[in-house]
Structures are given as structure tokens and as C-alpha cells.
TrEMBL record:
This is Calcitonin receptor. The keyword Membrane applies. GO terms for molecular function: G protein-coupled peptide receptor activity. It comes from Magallana gigas (Pacific oyster). Its main location: membrane. It is found in: Cell membrane.
Length: 569
């Protein structure tokens, strides 16, 4: 009994050693391994050549027979390989043997049937195939970066012979579809559709990142340019949050065009991923860190906002704990993850891009906890809006307030990540949706909290007025847009004591002193009105300052507060 490999049939023992040898040859390129295939009188062997700069080194001149029945020989061949690489190689050998045994039990094809003969092609098992048609198999797991959802194919020409590659003169099967996409085949000719999904995703991510950067960088510059803004706690948190998006976008662009694009366009072992350089691994660590940092800063924003609403008069005196969480938190999980990658030889390869199974949760778990915490914060804020805040006749209903708050807080809290938490296998629509959500979040938060913010507009108009010599513009105290209310929501209580971040240059020192005095006079009103102020600011209520004197003071409008007191002694 014999089995076919490529264009010849071999006895089963010889077939097993020959196919196992070529499994090794096809998996490990000549630039990476010292072993070379040789057909000697003893049979097919793998022979080690002279010493060199090889990733997989063997004693020069040593000879190995790729026989899975010889455990000692298998151990020696696998010694320089990682555990996963050895497993892939032996799986390929075992699959070839199973193919041989299965095809021996198939009925013999009719001589009147024009067909291509059953064969093992080096990676896959193809049965008898009608002339002029195409045979398909599921992509093997041991093909690098292959998707088990895709199929490889082998073309049978009308004359009953397998397709021969014009460059090599050998029978050829197409396994590129296992990585790059599906194919369409007709009975007369075969046309491979080069979808290049990965390049589509790269350019989609580039576009989204450039849009976000074009909004985030000016937003940070505006916050830092005006002292009245940058001294506020909530604005300092916004700056850190925006900076995390900027860093993530820049690293993502570098990774896509230095590593991913290079991997697709460079031959085999010449890509940065295969060379496994230190720079590539460092860039990968930065990529994982910056991605996690955005989740941690989302949590910091949510925690600060929730605390401001639930405990209106327990504003943090310092943001050090927030800085530690937002900056140090991601480093803890990322460093542990990197140490595991570097210390285990099986994981320290291919620029660390390979999944390391359960250890991936070192990164995923903190990110998910940040999202779940923000879901809780949002739910509690909506609960307070609907149950604890009494509506004013001139204000929108609690339900309208809740709807406004929900739409504005979703990008800040990262709730939009919900639909893409679960990743289905090899689904293009999911990858597109994930990239759009991930790389446009920075654009949305910069629009809501800076670009469309009334207070920011006021400072910019004042700056323009000073440059042009026109009268100064006074930012309105009674904000009219939902985005302005959200930006003011994080106003800390200490603003009154520290001359208030919302006190503009038009106020004199005397006015500030009057503000402090009136704040003391309004003590009985403050506890009840502070939460109301925060919640009304959250939902874009215009009537807040006209209704609550303490809110008028907190907004810097002490003249309006005095007027309210005179009407309501």
C-alpha cells in the first residue's frame, strides 16, 4: 500500500518520514533554522549545516530522521523549538499520516473518470477531484496566522492534473486565503479576490485617528492656554484623558505602519514580527499600555463625576490618587504582562503579538472592570436625576434630563464599548465597528467637552477681543447647551475659596470678597442646592442660576445672588 505526496506515491513508512520532514521545512524558513532536507541512502533526513546566526541551532553535521515513532529523535528536533512550535510541527506530521490511512480506505476512482488523484500536498489532504474543478479544505491550525473559518484550495486542470506553479514548476495549493480572505472559483477559471481586509482596517484606523488627533491636540492646547481653565480639577482630568487618547492614536498609527503593514508586505522572515526585535516588542508594550490607559482615565472621569454628584461637599483636595490610577494602574498590569512574555521562551517570539491564552486577562480584566464601574456610575447618576431632584416649573422633566445626561455621558464613560466587548471569530464587520468606536471616542469627547463648550468659547472670544482691541466678551453665566453643562458639572467646591476657576478677569478683588461673604450668608441653601446645581448643569437646565442663589454664587454671578436674596429674604 502506498500514499501520494505531490506527484509521486511512496510506501507508508517512507511517506510518513518524508511528509514529516517537509512539514518542518515548510514551517521553518532556511534563514531561521540550521536544518536542511536531504535524501540519503537511509532515506529522507534533516541535516544540520555549518554554524551561523540561526534562531533554531543544532550541532553542525548532526542528522535527524523525522520519525514520530522515534521519541528520542523527536525530542532532539524539538529542543530549540518552543512548545507551541513543536506541537504545530508534530500535528502536521500526524495529519499527514491520518490523511494517508484515510485515503487508503477510500474506493478506487473509476478509470473512466477524468480526475486529479488524491494527494497530500505538504500541509493539507486533498481527495480525488473532478477535472476542471477546485478542491477545498479547511485551513489547518498549524499554518501561521491561519483562520479556521477560511478555506485553502487546490485547482484541478481540465486535463486531470493538479495546478503547477509557473515559477517553481511544482504542484501548488493556495493557503494565502487562510490569512488574507476568501476566494471565488468558477468551473473554467479561478479568480482570487484579493480583499486585503487588513489594509482596509489599517487605513480606516488611520483616518479615525487623524480625525481624533486634529480635535484632541487643539483641545488640550486650549485648556492649557487659559489659566482659568487649567486650574480646575475637572479640566486637569480632561487634559489627562485627552492626552491618553493622543498617545494611543499615535502609537496605533506607528504600530499599523511600522509593524502590521511591514508584516503584510515583507517576505517571511524579513518582517519585523518575525525578526522579533527589541524595538518591535517595546512598541507592542506601549500599544498595550496606551490602550489600557484610556480605560483607566475613563474610570477616573466617571469616578470623579459620580463623587461630585453623590457627595457634593466632599470634593477631593488633590488629584494625586486619580493620577496614580490613570497613569500607574495600566503600567502595573502591562509590566507584569511584559515580564511573562519576556521570561517564557514560548511567548518571547514574533514581537509578542501571539495570544498567550489565560495571561491575556492580565490586560483585559482591569479594562473590563473600568467599564463595569462606569456603567454603575452612570446608572446611579440617572437614578438621582429621576428620583432625587425636584423639577422646577421652567426646567425639563426628569426623564428629559436623564436622556440628555445619557447621551452626553456615554462617550465620556466608554459605554459605547458594550457592543464590541465580545469578539466573534474573523468577522469583518466587527473589526470595522471596533476600530470606529475605539479611534473616534477621543474626537467625540473633545467636541463635547471643549470644542462645543460655551465657557471655552467665552475665553476664546476674550482672547480675540484683547488681540483686536475690542471690548472684552463676558461668558454667559447661564449656560444653554448640554455640553456646557457637562463641562461645568465637575466644578469643584473649592472654586469659591480659591477665587473660582469660573471667575473671569472682569471681576475685581472686591467682587470676589463679596462673593465669599454672600456664600457664607447663603449657607442654609448650599447643601440642598449644590446637588441640584450639579444635576441641572448635567442636563442643560437654563433656569438653575435664576432659581438657586447658591448656584448663582457657584457660577460666579454674585450680583444675581444678591438680587435673589432681596426678593427672598
Amino acid at each position: 500500500m502506498s500514499c501520494r505526496y505531490q506527484h509521486m506515491s511512496y510506501d507508508v513508512p517512507l511517506f510518513k518520514v518524508l511528509t514529516c520532514s517537509f512539514c518542518y521545512v515548510y514551517m521553518f524558513k532556511p534563514e531561521a533554522t540550521q536544518l536542511r532536507f536531504d535524501f540519503t541512502r537511509a532515506g529522507p533526513v534533516l541535516k544540520a549545516g555549518p554554524e551561523g546566526n540561526f534562531k533554531y541551532s543544532y550541532p553542525p553535521g548532526s542528522v535527524y530522521m523525522a520519525d514520530l515513532d522515534n521519541s528520542s529523535m523527536v525530542t532532539q528536533i524539538c529542543e530549540p523549538l518552543s512548545e507551541s512550535e513543536c506541537e504545530k510541527w508534530t500535528t502536521c506530521c500526524q495529519t499527514a499520516t491520518k490523511c494517508c490511512l484515510r485515503q487508503q480506505n477510500l474506493p478506487t476512482a473509476s478509470q473512466n473518470w477524468s480526475h486529479c488523484p488524491r494527494t497530500w500536498d505538504g500541509f493539507g489532504c486533498f481527495d480525488d477531484t473532478s477535472a476542471g474543478s477546485t478542491a477545498y479544505i479547511s485551513c489547518p491550525s498549524y499554518v501561521e496566522h491561519a483562520s479556521d473559518q477560511e478555506t485553502a484550495y487546490k485547482v484541478c486542470w481540465p486535463n486531470g492534473t493538479w495546478y503547477v506553479h509557473p515559477h517553481t514548476g511544482k504542484q501548488w495549493s493556495n493557503y494565502s486565503t487562510c490569512v488574507h480572505g476568501k476566494v471565488k472559483v468558477s468551473s473554467k477559471r479561478i479568480t482570487e479576490v484579493k480583499i486585503k481586509d487588513q489594509m482596509v482596517l489599517i487605513y480606516l484606523g488611520l483616518g479615525c485617528n487623524l480625525i481624533s488627533l486634529s480635535l484632541l491636540i487643539p483641545s488640550c492646547a486650549i485648556f492649557l492656554a487659559f489659566r482659568q481653565l487649567r486650574i480646575q480639577q475637572r479640566v486637569r482630568l480632561h487634559i489627562c484623558f485627552f492626552s491618553s487618547f493622543i498617545a494611543s492614536a499615535i502609537i496605533a498609527i506607528l504600530w499599523d505602519f511600522i509593524v502590521v503593514s511591514d508584516r503584510m508586505n515583507s517576505p517571511g522572515d524579513e518582517s519585523a514580527v518575525q525578526q522579533n526585535t527589541g524595538g518591535c516588542k517595546f512598541l507592542y508594550v506601549l500599544k498595550r499600555y496606551t490602550q489600557s490607559a484610556t480605560y483607566f482615565w475613563m474610570f477616573c472621569e466617571g469616578f470623579y463625576l459620580h463623587r461630585l454628584i453623590v457627595r457634593a461637599f466632599e470634593i477631593p483636595k488633590s488629584l494625586i490618587i486619580y493620577y496614580f490610577i490613570g497613569i500607574g494602574g495600566p503600567w502595573i498590569s502591562t509590566i507584569v504582562y511584559a515580564i511573562i512574555k519576556a521570561s517564557v521562551s514560548e511567548y518571547d517570539q514574533k514581537c509578542w503579538v501571539n495570544n498567550i491564552n489565560g495571561f491575556e486577562w492580565l490586560i483585559y480584566t482591569p479594562n473590563l472592570l473600568c467599564l463595569f464601574a462606569n456603567v454603575f456610575f452612570l446608572g446611579n447618576i440617572l437614578y438621582i436625576l429621576l428620583t432625587q431632584l425636584q423639577s422646577h416649573p421652567n426646567e425639563p422633566s426628569g426623564y428629559r434630563r436623564a436622556i440628555k445626561a445619557t447621551f452626553v455621558l456615554i462617550p465620556l464613560f466608554g459605554i459605547q464599548w458594550g457592543p464590541v466587548i465580545y469578539r466573534p471569530a474573523n468577522t469583518m464587520w466587527y473589526e470595522v465597528l471596533r476600530i470606529v468606536i475605539q479611534h473616534t471616542q477621543g474626537a467625540f469627547v473633545s467636541l463635547i467637552f471643549c470644542i462645543f463648550n460655551g465657557e471655552v468659547h467665552g475665553h476664546l472670544k476674550n482672547c480675540f477681543s484683547r488681540i483686536s482691541g475690542r471690548p472684552l466678551y463676558r461668558p454667559r453665566r447661564e449656560l444653554s447647551t448640554t455640553s456646557e453643562m457637562i463641562l461645568l458639572l465637575n466644578q469643584d467646591k473649592t472654586s469659591i475659596k480659591n477665587n473660582g476657576p469660573e471667575m473671569h478677569s472682569a471681576h475685581s478683588k472686591k467682587g470676589v470678597n463679596n462673593l465669599r461673604e454672600q456664600s457664607q450668608l447663603l449657607g442654609p441653601f448650599r447643601q440642598s442646592s449644590e446637588k441640584a446645581r450639579n444635576l441641572r448643569l448635567l442636563t442643560g437646565t437654563i433656569a438653575t442660576s435664576r432659581t438657586f442663589p447658591a448656584v448663582a454664587i457657584a457660577n460666579g454671578n454674585f450680583f444675581l445672588a444678591r438680587k435673589i436674596l432681596k426678593k427672598n429674604p
